[in-house]
Write a structure and sequence with these properties.
Layout: H1 6-22, E1 23-25, E2 31-33, E3 54-55, H2 74-84, E4 91-95, E5 101-105, H3 118-126, E6 131-136, H4 138-154, E7 159-163, H5 174-178, H6 182-186, E8 188-190, E9 201-205, E10 213-219, E11 228-231, E12 241-243, H7 244-252, E13 260-263, H8 267-270, H9 276-293, E14 299-302, H10 314-332, E15 340-341, H11 346-349, H12 365-381
Parallel strand pairs: 6-10, 6-13, 13-14, 14-15
Antiparallel strand pairs: 1-2, 2-3, 4-5, 7-9, 8-11, 9-10, 11-12
Helix pairs in contact: 4-12, 7-9, 9-10
Length: 382
């Protein structure tokens, strides 16, 4: 006759054996259960993504998401680029509490709570940052909306001060950039803008008693600035004439230069028109303008291009996009003393994210919101 309690003992031992067979103890004392990766198909559900499962000891205080990794910052991005010679790659898409996917890099920790409530306000106050500007084409517009969504969620009270008239392949709205100055408008010569969803806007977030932050998106489909010319003195026929980009830095921003400039290079418009070396020259011209006009305290972040999904020329277009991103990397030559900042390799990050694509070029808006949340976290972390 078996001793009393032996069946329970044998069952318990079997359970322990199964757990140890399928689990491994990592360097931080956590047991990670192996879960086979799920291969995403084109017809997969929007959020049918692999989720990492962890079994942790009850008294293990290290069982926090991202524990053991430093907080993501632009300083870490500099170190990564200098060490690896490319924009930061690698990460896992994970669902948040709202079942929306968010990218968790392998080499640092992102935590949206770092920019919630008074923490973001303290960061902006400490860094004396009150003016954000995003430039770019329709991708830039979505990043601008993402930045505005993050600031509205945290600071509240965001409202539009002005918006450019909705245009479809028509000349830009000069009244937006003249601010009602008829003499300036008389010297402007707008040209056709090849971007059907580009429309500039300016908004203010916060309250007068707390911290007002200006967010502006400047629409442009080219890094050449050839969508408008402005004559410095219309009475002098030999007066200097300059393009749209120079107008922005010389005249439009003159009374309030941005503290934080987000440059979204117009790669989707460039890949079918310019060789990477030519595009690099265009990027360099824009960079030179920022160095020439922006005050020393201004930060400039350059956003790499995303993967293109679902076109008849997907492979060739993506090869061109990768070459454009390489041109951007070569331009920056980031060092510890540079104020030109790189970002995550969004081409690699969105390569397997076709299920969240809005169309062949754009992603769904929540991803732009997430990426701008990451940018604010990195800025506040140093």
């Amino acid at each position: 006759m078996a001793p009393r309690g032996q069946p329970f003992f044998l069952t318990a031992m079997a359970i322990i054996f199964i757990v140890f067979f399928f689990a491994s103890l990592d360097s931080r004392g956590r047991y990670s259960i192996f879960v086979p990766s799920i291969s995403l198909q084109d017809n997969a559900k929007p959020y049918d993504i692999p989720i990492e499962l962890n079994v942790t000891r009850i008294n293990d205080t290290s069982a926090k998401p991202g524990h053991g990794k430093p907080a993501c910052s632009f300083g870490l991005i500099r170190e990564y680029i200098q060490k690896h010679g490319k924009f930061p790659q690698g990460g896992v898409w994970k669902e948040d509490s709202k079942l929306q996917p968010k990218l968790q890099p392998q080499w640092c920790r992102l935590d949206a709570n770092l920019i919630r409530g008074s923490q973001l306000l303290d960061c902006l106050n400490q860094k004396n940052t009150t003016h954000f500007v995003v430039t770019g084409d329709s991708q830039g517009f979505r990043y601008g909306q993402g930045l505005l969504a993050n600031l509205n969620e945290t600071l509240g009270g965001c409202y539009y001060v002005k918006r450019e008239a909705s245009l479809t392949n028509n000349p830009i709205d000069i009244s937006y950039f003249s601010d009602g100055d008829p003499h300036l408008e008389a010297r402007m010569k707008p040209m056709k803008r090849d971007c059907s969803t580009c429309s500039s806007f300016k908004a203010i977030c916060g309250t007068p008693f707390v911290h007002n932050v200006t967010v502006e998106y400047i629409a442009m489909h080219s890094m050449l600035g050839n969508i408008m010319t402005v004559v410095l003195d219309r009475k002098n026929s030999s007066a200097h004439t300059f393009g749209f980009h120079e107008f922005l830095f010389r005249k439009y921003f003159k009374d309030s230069y941005p503290d934080f400039l987000v440059v979204v290079p117009t790669m989707n418009h460039a890949i079918s028109r310019y060789a990477p070396d030519t595009f690099l020259d265009h990027l360099a011209s824009f960079r030179d303008l920022t160095d020439r006009f922006l005050p020393p305290h201004s930060h400039i972040v350059w956003i790499p291009g995303m993967t293109i999904h679902g076109t008849t020329r997907t492979k060739s277009n993506n090869r061109a996009m990768a070459a454009m991103n390489l041109a951007l990397y070569n331009l920056l030559e980031i060092s510890n003393s540079s104020r030109h900042l790189g970002f995550l390799d969004l081409f690699q990050a969105t390569e397997k994210a076709k299920q969240w694509a809005r169309d062949r070029i754009h992603m769904q808006q929540f991803l732009y919101n997430h990426f701008m949340s990451y940018m604010l976290q990195m800025f506040c972390q140093g």
